[in-house]
Amino acid sequence: MRRIFITGASSGIGQALAIKLAQEGHILGLAARRQDKLEQVAQQVQAAGGKAYLYPLDVRDRRQQFEAINHFAGLGGLDAAVANAGFGITKPILATSEEEARELFDVNLFGLLYTLQASAPHLHEGVFVGVSSVVAYALPTGYGVYSASKSAVSSLLTVARREMGHQFKVVLVSPGETQTEFWQVAQKRSGHLIDGRSPVPMASADTVAAVIARAIERPQPNVFMNWTERLLPILRGAFPAVLEHHYRVVEQH
């Protein structure tokens, strides 16, 4: 039985992960902005045989994150933390406002950074999981600023892995498009519908949650959902022209 703290736990991947971990008998700290949604997830966790402590907070608020994680760890320790909170927008770069760009980085990058900084003192030989996105490598048209925020997450955790050494494991999970409300919310917030999406299979939230749960149990540095997504960093690094040509072809159809 582990004690696991999860941000972005009120819906989508975070909700599915909470239920999955509850079924495995773990004790959970669940954080998200929407308290009503958190309470619904807590009921599902209880029905699955688990126990949850709820922390309504905004991940952009460093103080709130430290208070929540310190409180949860103080109740019996912290074995794993999953920085899952995030959002996206689907807009061309030149149409993205300063406010939108700053909010993306505040939530996706700084929110994760605060979760890492707050949980690190408690993760003695534990696991920190950061949820990025395959768009950090795919870089599809229309996702420029969102992709940049996730690329920053990937870079941050790659360095954190070296800095943490043997203190605890750092896992970077990069899902592709997932069957959640994420993209509907992104396009609603953006007012733009982008057709040039990443050419990867769409996974269910339960599938991604199962992969994250397995990563907590058996940590690996970089986790992808399938071999297609695993190839993207290789293609981006070794054959960037091939990937760029692929996107141009996709966007013309």
UniProtKB/TrEMBL annotation:
The keyword Coiled coil does not apply. It comes from the Bacteria. It comes from Microcystis aeruginosa SPC777. This is Putative oxidoreductase. GO terms for molecular function: oxidoreductase activity. Gene3D superfamilies: NAD(P)-binding Rossmann-like Domain. Belongs to the short-chain dehydrogenases/reductases (SDR) family. The keyword Acyltransferase does not apply.
